[in-house]
Design goal:
mainly alpha
Length: about 450
């Protein structure tokens, strides 16, 4: 159910990335630079209305999601720990679904102002999801089963990016209506919620249908969170924590920029129609989903065989997953107008992001065993701001949608990847930090 929550969350998130290619009227290439004049955009008669909004408004609508998203991480994680994860996660998807159902009406009545406001509230409603998953895992999953089940749970984000992009494009083209995609994904989210409320509970002892045998097993194998004070100052002063922020930051910059702006690139530069745009945008995320599994097995193998230390593995996989994909994306502009090669390079780039999940993402659990949820909320809160300024940079640098303008976008991404990877490799640690030890643990040691 957690995986399906993430799938639904990404359906509700990425639908606008595809729909906005039809909401905004196609660019008049007689009045601007046409990067690929050999292609003609297949404009469709789409219901729901089209609007002549400037490029910066389009970018602002897309990145306004992350304004709300970054704000609600820490409060959402605290609510899940304090009152239980069930209603926090359920409310996230329910509210996000309702807002998506209202989105077409809001745009028709309030224009881009309404689009920005509702998009911000969709982000606000989805921010608590990742910390809430951490709380669920802590309460329900024995340590020996966490590697597999955590991968299944978080894998819903990549899977949702695949299905959301593919089917959003198909729905819009087949129904010739961009609002229909919002309605369908909104209904899917509410159907999930109706099952979730009867099937999922915050803790084993609150579940009405759990067997006594399973309850006793979980009581023995799951270490429940103790009541203690979070050492906020020590955590915020810790360089290994800021190394985690750097690693997550550059990952999010690449991931969110591709997820948000790839449909824009395919439409404005390569003039790919809405259905094929959805399919082409999904391919890189399918590749990422596959590579996560492949590199996870490889990382476990080289560490367990003592080929490389845990710390070196974390640093190698994190730096590789940032610098190499960013370098591949720089090549996209040199390919020019070859659709097949451009989509291949995008797919290769996200495939090479896969080692991240065996690097920095696991590294968080090396430095703490008590404050994983809190630190995850801090790291994701700061790193998710890339969803705001990443697309903003794209919007500001590509007013004419020329290849030269996109060249600058990808070189900036490469510069960020190199600099933050250096910071991570210098300050990352695979040792449990001093501030993570409780008073009784210090006495015992």
């Amino acid at each position: 159910m957690i995986q399906l929550a993430m799938v639904n969350a990404y359906h509700l998130r990425v639908v606008l990335n595809i729909a906005i290619t039809e909401i905004i009227k196609p660019k008049n290439y007689t009045e601007s630079v046409d990067a690929c004049p050999n292609y003609v955009y297949e404009a469709l008669e789409i219901k729901g209305g089209t609007y002549e909004w400037p490029v910066w408004i389009e970018s602002f609508i897309l990145y306004s999601f992350y304004i709300g998203y970054s704000i609600s991480h820490i409060p959402g994680g605290w609510l899940a720990d304090k009152f239980g994860a069930k209603h926090v996660m359920g409310t996230c998807i329910l509210v996000s679904s309702i807002l998506n159902l209202l989105y077409p009406l809001a745009i028709s009545k309030g224009g881009y102002t309404a689009a920005i406001v509702l998009r911000t509230f969709v982000g606000l409603s989805q921010g608590p999801l990742l910390p809430t998953i951490t709380t669920f895992i802590q309460c329900w999953v024995p340590i020996k089963e966490r590697a597999l089940l955590v991968s299944i749970a978080f894998g819903g984000s990549t899977l949702g990016a695949v299905t959301g992009n593919v089917f959003s494009g198909m729905i819009i083209k087949r129904t010739q209506s961009w609002p229909m995609a919002f309605y369908i994904w909104g209904i899917f989210g509410m159907v999930w919620y109706s099952f979730y409320m009867f099937m999922v509970y915050s803790k084993p002892r609150t579940h009405p249908f759990i067997t006594e045998e399973e309850l006793q097993m979980l009581d023995k194998q799951v270490e429940y969170r103790k009541s203690f004070k979070v050492p906020w100052v020590e955590i915020l002063k810790s360089l290994p924590v800021w190394a985690l922020v750097a690693g997550q930051f550059v990952h999010n910059y690449i991931f969110f920029t591709v997820m948000t702006d790839l449909p824009k690139y395919l439409k404005e530069i390569l003039k790919v129609n809405v259905e094929n745009n959805g399919i082409a945008t999904a391919l890189p995320f399918l590749a990422l989903w596959i590579s996560q599994i492949i590199f996870a097995y490889f990382a476990d193998y080289i560490v367990n065989k003592n080929i490389i230390s845990v710390l070196k593995a974390r640093k190698l996989f994190t730096a590789f997953s940032a610098v190499v994909p960013a370098s591949v994306l720089v090549l996209v502009v040199y390919i020019g107008c070859n659709r097949t090669l451009v989509i291949t390079l995008y797919t290769m780039a996200l495939f090479l992001v896969g080692p991240f999940f065996s690097g920095m993402k696991v590294n968080l659990n090396d430095v703490t065993i008590h404050y994983g949820g809190t630190i995850a909320a801090i790291v994701n809160c700061i790193a998710s701001t890339t969803g705001v300024w990443g697309p903003l940079v794209v919007g500001l640098l590509t007013p004419n949608s020329s290849l030269e303008e996109w060249h600058r976008v990808f070189f900036i991404m490469l510069g960020v990847a190199i600099s933050l990877s250096i910071f991570y490799c210098v300050f990352a640690s695979a040792e449990r930090q001093k501030w993570d030890y409780l008073d009784d643990e210090i006495d015992e040691n």
